Amino acid sequence: MRTLTLSIDGSDVTVPEGATLLEACKKAHVDTPTFCWAENLTPVNVCRICVVEVEGARTLAPACSRKAEAGMKVLTDSERVRHSRKVVLELLGSSVDMSLAKDFAPLRQRYGADPKRLAGETVAQPVKIDNDQFVRDYSKCMLCYKCVEACGTDAQNTFAIAVAGRGFEASIATEHQASLGDSACVFCGNCVGVCPTGALMFKTEFDLREAGKWDESRQTVTDTICPYCGVGCTLTLRVQDNAIVRVTSPSDSSVTGGHLCVKGRFGLGFVGGRKP
Amino acid sequence: MDLHPINALATDAERAAIDTVLGPPLADTTIPAAEAKARRTFLLPALLGLQTRIGHVSEGGLGYACRRLGVPPAEAFGVASFYALIALGERPAAFAHVCDDIACKAAGADQLCAELEQTQGKPAHLHHRADAPKNLKHQATWAKSPCLGLCEQAPAALVTVARASPVEQSFGHATPQRIAAALKGETVERPTLHLGSHGPRKLLARQGCLDLDAYRAAGGYQALRRALELGPEAVIREVTDARLVGRGGAAFPTGRKWEAVSKAAAHPHYMVCNADESEPGTFKDRVLLENDPFSVIEGMTVAAFATGSTKGYLYLRGEYPLAAQRLERAIGEARAKGLLGTNILSHRFDFDLELRRGGGAYICGEETSLFASIEGYRGEPRSKPPFPVQSGLFQHPTAINNVETLVAALDIVRDGAKAYGTGTKLFCVSGKVRQPGVYEVPLGITLDQLLQLAGGTEQPIKAILMGGAAGTFIGPEQTGMTLSLEGAKQAGTTLGSGVVFVIDETVELTPLLRRIAAFFRDESCGQCVPCRVGTVRQEELLHRLTRGGADRPRELALLKELGQAMRDASICGLGQTASSAIESATRFI
Amino acid sequence: MLKAVRRGAKLYVVDPRRTSTCEWADGWLPVEVGSDISLSNGIARVILEEGLQNRAFIARACEGFEAFAQNVEQYPLARVTKETSVDAELIRRVARDYARADRAMICWTLGITEHHNAVDNVFSLINLGLLTGHVGKWGSGLNPLRGQNNVQGGGDSGALPNRLPGFQDVEDDAVRAAFDAKWGRPVPPKKGWHLTDMFHAMERRELTALYVIGENPAQSEADARHCHALLNGLDCLIAQDIVMTKTCEMAHVVLPATASFCEAEGTVTNSERRVQRVRKAVQPPGQARDDIEIISELSRRLGYELGLPSAEAAWDEMRSLSPMHGGMSYRRLEQLGGIQWPCPDESSPGSPFLHGRLWADPVEGPRAPFQVVHQDPPVEALDADFPLRLTTGRRLDSYNTGVQTGGYVSPLRQRETIELSPVDAKMLGVHPGDTVRVSSRRGNVTVEVAIDEHLKPGLTFMTLHAPDQVDVNQLTIDATDPKSGTAEFKAAAIRVEKL
Ligand SMILES: Cc1cc2nc3c(=O)[nH]c(=O)nc-3n(C[C@H](O)[C@H](O)[C@H](O)COP(=O)(O)O)c2cc1C
Ligand code: SF4
Ligand code: SF4
Ligand code: SF4
Ligand code: FES
Ligand code: FES
User: Fold this and answer.
1) Which tens digits make up the pLDDT trace of C70-124?
2) pLDDT number for residue C195
3) Does the structural domain C2-140+361-368 have CATH classification 3.30.160.160?
4) pLDDT computed for residue C221 by the predictor
5) Share of chain A above pLDDT 70, in %
6) ipTM above 0.90?
7) Per DSSP, what are the bridge partners of residue A67?
């Protein structure tokens, strides 16, 4: 494997050819925030939280998708980088409900972002509940494209959803807003699995949250293998009060790459449905 | 592909509209994925086929297009909802797009719109929200539009009547009466175009040559002959020596671009002409496309020869119906006379080109977005690198050039780099000058000289927008600046796409700034956070700022902070420049 | 597979029905049901005719080539096209692409194995792998895609009539001796019955007691009426399951068990021979007990004290007796995210592919034999009384007899239907949603009609997912492969009548 050397914040790192700046940063032990990037999806580089400064470039570069080049000089914590990351956090925080986005609060702290400064129009809208498997609350959608990629060529190849509309009005949609049941959706839930903001949520989880009963302190998380076909997908079962409330799969699993089908994801009702 | 069909069925008229574009359907309705991949590029033409002939894209129509092309319905919907000219709900067949952008606003577009409201009723809000209720029916017969590229005849309108043989016309000096006539399908006269120059005309030398004989008589196709004699390398050398830079706004050296494509290992290579001209205040390409279509075709052919491309696309903005008709005719004639196709001018050189029309999206002028649009995807730009010369249209090496760049190359190739000198450039002078129009001037004259050519102003100048909405405002004290790349840099502004939009003391600046902010908000593709949300926040801040009473220093500082992040962190030029004009104008408000 | 296709791999799909996979394929071979051997032999003949076989591999690692070559000589494309209905040029293309590929893989599911000549079908595919040398290498090989999460593990651990754990021959004295020593009891020295043998034995009243663990034969067996009669005739039927299945309802004793994948500890083995851990995540309901506990308790009452071993202890015992599992401690299974057998000791990383020995110099172990196999159509031919071919299968959101998948509401699931081709539907004068009677020589059901516009005339399709609603196995035939014991679920002759 051919390698190349570049400088990250003044220290040299050597990475394989074709590596991204994100990988180089990781190698240099520089923690780079990401929202729209995931190891099991093709980078779309749209959220821009990962931007870094490449010496000599007019604009900042997205670390998640920019390829490292020999001799590049990269700054990950310069004034410009911190500023852009802060404003991106403020833009997201002021327009999207990021309350369930896991990394959001710590990042706000880290970059001193105050979304209230940029308060204005938001994407708030009613929750879409059209099936028993999962709900779509696009008030929480930061348009990271992950669900579209998971539904498309990165995993499911079903293409039930796409980004529609343009600009601030862009949103994730089926054709002419058909309900998921009327669309091509096969309810694999791979979109739910990759959604970073909780916009896509298991119906079980949604109902518990609505009822004020969702309580992570009472939950356990256990990896096991799907009871159905011979692929042998790893299921991560989140259990509260002896009921399975969410099913995911580790994105680094060699068998699943994080993706499942409808049976493993949503078809475990028989476990709790048995009469004692 | 294994498509999940849309249940709604297409009407016979909808099928006919799509079949007109795609040809008659084959018996087998399922399309293997590989074949679907190849057909994807016809998605936008099919959708526009529906739009122009039916007047909107219904569920059934969309479903039929998807079946014919093997495109998943959700993706096709994502594409359809991207374009402003495509309506997703039913609306009247006759529809007017009335420009209320900068030049038209300065020429009384707001008054025109108010009058139209009296006669035509309220305008439709062409929002790009995809979650409009299903089967929505609009009654409105018109909507406000961004710049239509007719700024010298402001205020302008584009009127379309959907039917089997569609009527589309765009015209300036719009009045409620002229718009009403056009909505009835009547032909509306266009005012005569004003052209001017400082010194001999080169780019504008062949205006009005609409058929091949006239074009040849005016010296047409001499450049191609010379190019074929010289060979590709020598052609590129001439263009490089002439230091021609792109006229689309980014001012990249054309010779370097051609050379990179000609040397790219992957084949085929593509030659794309960017005729999406949508930068508010820009109309020079329209003048070339409408009145000198063969120059554009010859320019593309020369560029294709130099870059080793056998296939070209001419991507024309959807709002230029007259240019479309004339180009279509000219392409047909060139093809019939062997100037496109195989063994052109008896040389071993094959090249043909396809005219593609846009669907109403400023962003599709950005090169990578334009490729996505031709390929049948949403017009979303992508990060560069890789650059188009390595991976452009269909992921192949692509030379993409602005219309004017290609026409300028003709003179260089025909007469040689030496004779070309510093070359000329077209400027789109609009607003409060006595004679708005397109002016061809040698680079190096002053802005004052250009303004004099345009008859000067009646009232004292308040400000001049240079380079379009993505450019900057300069003050009256700066009119001594030199019109050249260096001169613009010195003056802290840009020539961009050649926009010189002049406002005098009679014009209010605030509504124009708000219009510019709204423009970027509307035209952002929506992909990246700094631009998608940033353009909204910028508009909000501007409103607060111009309403007065706000904490002005704080709002100004925020505007600046926002602008910095948009410039630094946006994916493409739209987001990167969306704050430029507004920031430059805050000193005037 | 789609990932590979996206990276440039070619994909050909052999299936009587046009599935979604076909849409991504470079070619779809719509074979007649039960014409697989003709197709394989035809492909082999093209490969030989064009000299595309891997001569070196055949010479070094195989045997029986001459007889095989002679046999496939009888399968010229003219004949194969007639028997399979597949276009000759397409067959030629598949043959060339498969033979010329740097690495190529044949994957199959029940379309190959649910036939009366299942094993011959598989042999015919193995022949192609040997002919081209696409075996024993990474990215190549012959790949049966398993339909259950532990069908592989069941066989691996000895749930076969003739095998002890690790596929060791039960009739091999040396093998048995190790087990005898460990267990302190002699292992019966003769192989037992497989499922079909058992039903025959029931018929002969040689088998009168049956202990069924986690199966639902009352609904999953072909020719259901016949099967019910036999189960009802048993003196003792014990059913151990996690839900009250039809079989449980018929049983004399029901032992409620835990859902092993989430209420107990253990391992399962997937299609790629990867042994992975299942773990307890929820408490079982009511009196349900762990399988190990039930068996231990049963054993104790039968007079043999097993104690109450943990799942890990049971596994470790098996590792000590089954060489291919030797290195798979729980600790290592955790660490490596599962291990593919064989994994003889704790230094082995497991085996991503098998039969690499065929490429060793010289070849290790016995040569790989070509098999002479002949086209043999489905047992039940179509005739005037039963003119349509019924083939059965699964749908994405459902599983087997629906015992588990019945437990969730799937927006994809429609009512069970019989899928007809547009041509047949028109001939029968039926429309989607109409109710029809479907009969075979063994029984009949009533069901709603659906139309699959890609089905070829003469072919119909149903699933076994909703036996309570439409008991498809009333129709299927129990013609069974003598070697594998699998019934010909894929090919019955039926008649459809409008009601
Ligand atoms: C938002 C945006 C819109 C653009 N629109 C146009 C356009 O309408 N016409 C054009 O020629 N170039 C446009 N460009 C510039 C093109 O991306 C590209 O630089 C140009 O077509 C290259 O041709 P040139 O080198 O001949 O100028 C636009 C760029 C951006 C960022
Ligand atoms: S559940 Fe699966 S098929 Fe449905 S939208 Fe999500 S990813 Fe696509
Ligand atoms: S729904 Fe979730 S995964 Fe999809 S774009 Fe929105 S935030 Fe991303
Ligand atoms: S900068 Fe704006 S137009 Fe460009 S990619 Fe980002 S959102 Fe789209
Ligand atoms: S993580 Fe890089 S742009 Fe989103
Ligand atoms: S046409 Fe109205 S601003 Fe250009």
Assistant:
1) 999 999 999 999 999 999 999 999 999 999 999 999 999 999 999 999 999 999 9
2) 87
3) no
4) 79
5) 99
6) yes
7) A20
Alpha-carbon span B262 to B302, nearest angstrom: 12
pLDDT at residue C480 above 80?
yes
Site of tokens 């979604």: C20
**Cα–Cα distance, B145 to B140 (Å, whole number):** 14
CB-based contacts of C328, cutoff 8 Å, min separation 6? C275, C315, C319, C339, C341, C343, C350
Q: Which chains touch B (3 or more CB pairs under 8 A)?
A: A, C
CB-CB neighbors (< 8 A) of B59 in chain A: 175-176
The number of C-beta contacts closer than 8 angstroms across B and C is 18
**Ligand 1 atom 20: residue of nearest CA:** B248
pLDDT higher than threshold 50 for residue C356: yes
Which of B1, B43, B77, B137 is the mutation pick for testing A, counting most A CBs within 10 A?
B77
**d(Cα B430, Cα B436) in Å, to the nearest integer?**
5
Q: What is the pLDDT of residue C404?
A: 80
For chain B, residues with pLDDT lower than 50 are: 1
Q: Do A262 and C410 touch (CB under 8 A)?
A: yes
Which of helix, strand or coil describes residue A61?
Answer: strand
Q: Would you mind telling me the total number of residues written for chain A in this entry? A: 276
CA of B368 to the centre of ligand 4 (A): 11
Q: Measured in angstroms, how far is the CA atom of residue B151 from the centroid of ligand 6?
A: 4
Cross-chain residue pair A45–B569, CB shorter than 8 Å = no
pLDDT in tens, C5-60: 888 899 999 999 998 888 889 999 999 999 999 999 999 999 999 999 999 999 99
Looking at residue B514, its pLDDT comes to: 97
Q: Of C489, C493, C447, which Cα lies nearest the Cα of C112?
A: C489
Ligand 2: atom nearest CA of A174 is 5
**CATH 3.40.50.720: does it fit domain A134-273?**
no
- B155 preceded by a cis bond (ω within 30 of 0): yes
**CATH level 2 (architecture), domain C151-353:** 3-Layer(aba) Sandwich (3.40)
Mutate to test the pocket of ligand 6, among B97, B98, B144, B148 (most ligand atoms within 8 A of CB): B148
- Which of B1, B131, B136, B377 has the most A C-beta neighbours within 10 Å, making it the best mutation to test the interface with A? B131
Q: How many angstroms separate the CA of residue C25 from the nearest CA in chain B?
A: 7
Out of A234, A254, A267, the one facing C408 most closely (by C-beta) is A267
Which pLDDT belongs to residue B1?
42
Measured in angstroms, how far is the CA atom of residue B536 from the centroid of ligand 4?
13
The boundaries of every CATH 3.40.50.740 domain in chain C are: 151-353
Q: What's the confidence (pLDDT) of residue C156?
A: 94
**Chain A residues with beta carbon closer than 8 angstroms to that of B523:** 166-167
The residue ranges of every structural domain in chain A are: 1-122, 134-273
Task: List the CATH code of the domain at A1-122.
Answer: 3.10.20.740
**pTM beyond 0.90, yes or no:** yes
- Pocket test residue of B110, B111, B144, B147 for ligand 6, highest count of atoms within 8 A of CB: B147
B297-349 tens-digit pLDDT: 999 999 999 999 999 999 999 999 999 999 999 999 999 999 999 999 999 99
Show Cβ contacts of residue A160 under 8 Å, excluding neighbours closer than 6 positions: A151, A174, A180, A183, A184, A185, A186, B4, B72, B74
8 A C-beta contact, residue A251 and residue A240 = no
Residues of chain C with CATH 2.40.40.20: 388-498
Task: Enter the DSSP assignment of C167.
Answer: T
Q: How far apart are CA B274 and CA B388, in angstroms?
A: 13
pLDDT of residue B136: 62
Between CA B373 and CA B82 the distance in angstroms is 10
Which CATH class for the C388-498 domain? mainly beta
Looking only at the bridges linking them, the beta strands covering B461-466 and B499-504 are antiparallel
